[in-house]
């Protein structure tokens, strides 16, 4: 016989209040619903639990016997649920974080702060391919990922956005724009931009290598690459240019390549993302460290 917790809760409250109206108020139910629950419990047990008259409500001997046994059992059940809630809210186990490219200082600081404050949770970091920002998340091989914006996936949640930096254009030192102090997005008209191939959605690849200037002038699509290092090799060979943020440009300096500050396009930015409905306590805690 299945136990209906709502029936037991109704019985316990009514045994305290001895009044159907006050019981209904405490349980946010109608009085008729309280009566239905009580009657169902009495049928389940096989006898009346309360004596009900127009003036008073009182426990029957059967009701008193049930109350004596039920109170400690119900309190134990509440403790079990509370213990489970505390366990679910505890940051422990392992947290797997993926990131595109090199982990920058902000990511490393967040990892260090998280690990020092949550010693019972081991954090693992792994590099994600630049041409597949969301695949590891969907396969379940990471719990959250630090990826380049934009992110417009229905099954993913975008958490804290950080590491906003202006774009630069990486070009071969023989490129016509290499000696410019800065360039505008409109100067990309007629240029060839190296793009990422692979399973990344079209809107994301378009953001990393636009095919039009803001005014609509054509930008040629160059060779597709899978990694940043492949792109840098093509840039050094003067096969095209590539958009990179300032920190990435500084971290990946290479002979024969110069980076020129670029205006007129949105800043590069990173975000922590995770699967919708799967924000674990560990993911939530790590997200808070990235916000700091």
Roughly how much helix do the residues carry, as a percent range?
25-40%
Strands of the biggest beta sheet: in what spatial order?
Answer: 4-3-5-13-6
**Within the CATH hierarchy, at the fold level, what is the topology of the largest domain?**
D-Maltodextrin-Binding Protein, domain 2
Mean pLDDT level: 90
- Oligomer classification: single chain
CATH architectural arrangement of the largest domain: 3-Layer(aba) Sandwich
Number of domains: 3
Spell out the CATH superfamily of the largest domain: Periplasmic binding protein-like II
The amount of beta strand, in percent, is 25-35%
Q: Which term fits the overall shape?
A: elongated
Order of helices and strands: HHHEEHEHEHEEEEEHEHEHEEH
Organism: Kribbella soli
Pfam families: HTH_1, LysR_substrate
GO molecular function: DNA binding; DNA-binding transcription factor activity
Keywords: DNA-binding, Transcription, Transcription regulation
Question: What are the main properties of this structure?
Answer:
D-Maltodextrin-Binding Protein, domain 2, 5-stranded mixed beta sheet, Arc Repressor Mutant, subunit A, transcription, DNA binding, alpha/beta, 4-stranded mixed beta sheet, transcription regulation, 10 helices, 26% strand
């Amino acid at each position: 016989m299945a136990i209906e917790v709502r029936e037991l809760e109704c019985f316990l409250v009514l045994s305290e209040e001895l009044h159907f109206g006050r019981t209904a108020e405490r349980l946010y139910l109608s009085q008729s619903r309280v009566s239905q629950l009580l009657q169902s419990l009495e049928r389940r047990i096989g006898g009346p639990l309360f004596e009900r008259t127009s003036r008073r409500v009182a426990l029957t001997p059967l009701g008193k016997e049930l109350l004596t046994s039920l109170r400690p059992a119900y309190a134990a059940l509440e403790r079990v649920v509370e213990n489970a809630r505390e366990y679910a809210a505890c940051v422990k186990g392992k947290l797997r974080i993926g990131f595109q490219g090199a982990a920058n200082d902000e990511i490393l600081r967040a990892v260090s702060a998280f690990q020092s404050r949550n010693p019972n949770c081991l954090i693992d970091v792994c590099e994600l391919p630049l041409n597949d920002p969301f695949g590891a998340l969907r396969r379940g091989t990471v719990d959250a990922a630090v990826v380049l914006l934009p992110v417009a996936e229905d099954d993913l949640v975008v958490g804290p956005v950080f590491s906003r930096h202006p774009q630069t254009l990486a070009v071969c030192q023989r490129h016509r724009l290499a000696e410019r102090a800065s360039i505008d997005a409109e100067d990309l008209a007629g240029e060839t931009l190296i793009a990422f191939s692979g399973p990344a959605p079209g809107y994301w690849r378009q953001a990393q290598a636009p095919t039009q200037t803001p005014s609509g002038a054509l930008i040629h699509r160059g060779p597709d690459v899978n990694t940043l290092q492949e792109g840098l090799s093509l840039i050094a060979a003067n096969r095209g240019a590539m958009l990179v943020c300032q920190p990435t440009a500084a971290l990946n300096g290479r002979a024969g390549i110069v980076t020129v500050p670029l205006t007129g396009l949105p800043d590069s930015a990173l975000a922590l993302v995770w699967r919708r409905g799967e924000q674990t306590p560990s993911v939530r805690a790590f997200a808070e460290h990235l916000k700091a």
